[in-house]
Write a structure and sequence with these properties.
The chain is mainly α. The chain contains six helices and no strands. The longest helix has 20 residues. The two termini are 28 Å apart.
């Protein structure tokens, strides 16, 4: 991870460690700092920029989902989906679908229709 993206790895590793010890404030702070560094890096033309931003939003959704913040998780997940669609990242969209299913299960909704409609579409991509 340090070799792939040394400027951002510290913040992401802090996020992962904070999640491990269930510290929501430090994990959210580290992840949002990762967002800030990514946006301020000015790599919008870089092919990996949209992908990194998509996975950062997806991690934010999983953070909120893990702590039971369903509304915030839903908003972050919607953002991850928008970014993944814009950057044509089908793998991230499939991850978003699985988190969307998990979130709907946590809220007590029937996710069967969501899965039946979405899985064949995402698998074809």
């Amino acid at each position: 991870m340090l070799k792939f993206n040394p400027d951002f790895a510290e913040h992401y590793l802090n996020y992962l460690n904070s999640m491990r010890v269930q510290d929501i404030f430090l994990s959210a702070h580290s992840l949002l700092h990762y967002f800030d560094r990514l946006i301020l890096s000015g790599n919008e033309g870089n092919e990996g920029y949209g992908r990194s931003l998509c996975y950062a939003a997806l991690n934010l959704a999983s953070l909120h989902c893990s702590f039971g913040h369903h509304q915030q998780a839903d908003l972050a997940l919607q953002e991850a989906i928008r970014i993944a669609q814009k950057s044509n990242d089908h793998v991230c969209l499939q991850h978003c679908l699985s988190w969307l299913y998990t979130l709907e299960q946590m809220k007590g909704s029937d996710s069967t229709v969501l899965t039946e409609d979405s899985v064949p579409t995402s698998a074809c991509q």
